[in-house]
Amino acid sequence: MLKNLDPALNADVLHALRSMGHGDTLVLADTNFPSDSIARQTVLGKALRIDNVSAARAMQAILSVLPLDTPLQPSVGRMEIMGDPETIPEIQQEVQAQIDAAEGQSAPMYGIERFAFYEKAKQAYCVIATGETRFYGCFLLTKGVVPPKG
């Protein structure tokens, strides 16, 4: 156990988050997402896991260490519901609350059509699978920067 690190973050996830650079993306996926097959096509080449937690809880853990690219652009995409892209399901509302809390302000997610999401996911740095069982618990995060002190 380490001090000041969320216990949901395991060594593999921490290594991937630290290895990513500004503008790299990661996928946070629910249990129905084809994490293994998509992850084989990413930069990292293998799926990572934050098991037994919801997507919102995993997002909270990730955002405790990962800066988002929010000053320049919307930096978290959400998989849109097929045939109903404007509806924000409960799981996405919960994740939005975690994003806003981490950023200290409203940082709205943008929608990505389901099949476009799969294509963007293949170009990501990594895929992190969660224990989220609800549909549409899939998100694409863009890493920002940590500015120098002073």
From TrEMBL:
UniProt catalytic activity: alpha-L-fucose = beta-L-fucose; beta-D-ribopyranose = beta-D-ribofuranose
Q: Which UniProt keywords apply?
A: Isomerase
Which top-level enzyme class is recorded in the Swiss-Prot or TrEMBL entry?
isomerase
Q: What one GO molecular function would you report for this record?
A: L-fucose mutarotase activity
Annotated Gene3D superfamilies: RbsD-like domain
EC number, UniProt record: 5.1.3.29
Q: Name one Pfam family in it.
A: RbsD_FucU
Q: What is this protein called?
A: L-fucose mutarotase
Q: Which organism is it from?
A: Neorhizobium huautlense
